[in-house]
Amino acid sequence: MQNQTKMKMRPVQNQRGQMTIVMGLAAFLAALLCISAAIDGAHVYLVQQELIRVTDSAALAGAARLTGESATVISAVSDVAAANRVDGKPIIDNPPRTTLAVTINNPAGQNQGTVTVATSTTTRHIFMPLLGRHEDHVYAQSTAGAGAPVTALARNKVFPLAVSYDAKPSDDPQARALKDLQLGDITTLYLSSQQFKNAAFTSLGPESTSASAVKSLIDGHLKQSNTEESVQVGDSIDMGNGVMGLKYLANSPYREILLGKECLFLPIISGQPAFNESQNVLGFVAVKILEIQKHGDGGSNLLFTVKLVPGLTEGLSQESSNSPSQLAAISLRSVRLLR
Hints:
By secondary structure, this protein is α+β, with helices and mostly antiparallel strands. Helices cover 30% and strands 29% of the residues. The strands form 5 sheets. The chain has a 6-stranded mixed β-sheet with strand order 8-15-14-12-7-9. A 5-stranded mixed β-sheet has the order 3-4-5-17-16, covered by helices on one side.
């Protein structure tokens, strides 16, 4: 009887063992599917973050160009988008899987408005096809707004080099004044204590522009020292000669630091910068320094080859009657993300 009982129980034990194996396999497959879904989900999230970074940057770049034609805004957006890859693919050259759309709201051609950049891409999954899901459509949109020309900046954000709005070197027949330039144009800033110049170092205030004061301001600017002081349109700022520029900026380490910066914010004045005289700030312009060189007998001149760029800042952006209206096209303006 005992033997018969044992024989009858063996099929039950075998069945339980088989169920255990089946349940184990089911649990393993469920865990595998969860891990697969998590991996593909993380991939979709990363792709969306890449899209957001592109749309944020492109919208800001486009809003900074709202003073120009629509084609200029679209070109700025496209340039930023073209410099980025999403999910390993370029946005511009990968239709129809990746798209880019630009919407410009610039009423009556004013220098204020918004630029909205929307982009999307189709990302293919690695593991989710096991569940019948082969791809996902990922979308991102950013809107940036531009204000009027900036009328005030924190002092540590302004580089102590004033550039003239209307002066141009008389010994350079190809030279153009700042008022005749557009964003993207390249020009030369001439600094000299002896000859005609269209730019000069400044104390950024009424105090005298000494070599030590300028060096202190340059160091403070490059280190972004904290300050509650500001420079505003209408402020009277003192002008100095180019000697300290030859001493500091044309040599290491200042030369390499300045050439490596994306842009500098410079105050704009009117007329030829005169040594030991004060002039009023008309506005601010952003420039990228392309070359720094000494020029003339004994290196008496310091030349900055610069490109006018659409600088981005959080400076105050209120309309000012002190600034020439022509400055709107090149002036530094506040640009910020709205959503």
